[in-house]
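Lecture notes, part 5. Sequence design as translation. It can be helpful to think of inverse folding as translation between two languages: the language of shapes and the language of residues. The source text, in structure tokens, appears below.
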């Protein structure tokens, strides 16, 4: 019982330490925890900022759902024109407000950036702007993923319960 007790406590400590808090400094030098709903609301305002998206055709702009509706024929126009730069400005705006922002398709900022890099590269992925499919094709690559912390946390929790279950029969015999 003592061994499983230690494993469970270790897992709880790891989970608590990996849980992000959104804090900012207030005028008195103390920390103030921001409401996640307010952060998301502020981040969504980036989409309507007229200084960010000023030249990119509206149909090619990144949407709140996490989609880039860029047809293959418009790849050169998108990648070599203002759209790519303005999309990065939008992502910077969102990231500066709420770095853990997730689009409606569950893509993180890093997933969008990775899709842009691949779609504008000189590789076989050029012109491939489908973020959701890009995420699915990269699902088994943990390194660099937005959800790396979540994957690690779930694995630790699973291993904790697994080892706890394995230890129970040993504890009964001791």
């Amino acid at each position: 019982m003592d061994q499983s007790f230690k494993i469970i406590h270790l897992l709880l400590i790891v989970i608590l330490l990996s849980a992000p808090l959104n804090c900012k400094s207030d005028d008195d030098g103390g920390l103030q925890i921001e409401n996640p709903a307010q952060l998301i609301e502020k981040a969504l305002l980036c989409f309507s900022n007229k200084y960010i998206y000023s030249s990119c055709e509206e149909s090619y702009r990144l949407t709140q759902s996490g989609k880039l509706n860029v047809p293959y024929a418009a790849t050169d126009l998108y990648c070599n024109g203002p759209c790519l730069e303005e999309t990065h400005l939008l992502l910077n705006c969102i990231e500066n407000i709420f770095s853990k922002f997730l689009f409606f398709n569950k893509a993180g900022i890093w997933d969008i950036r990775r899709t842009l890099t691949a779609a504008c590269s000189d590789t076989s992925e050029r012109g491939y702007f489908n973020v959701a499919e890009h995420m699915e094709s990269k699902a088994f690559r943990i390194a660099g993923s937005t959800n790396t912390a979540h994957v690690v946390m779930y694995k630790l929790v699973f291993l904790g319960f697994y080892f706890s279950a394995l230890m129970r029969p040993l504890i009964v015999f001791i």
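The translated text above is only one of many valid answers, since several sequences can fold into similar shapes. The radius of gyration is 21 Å.
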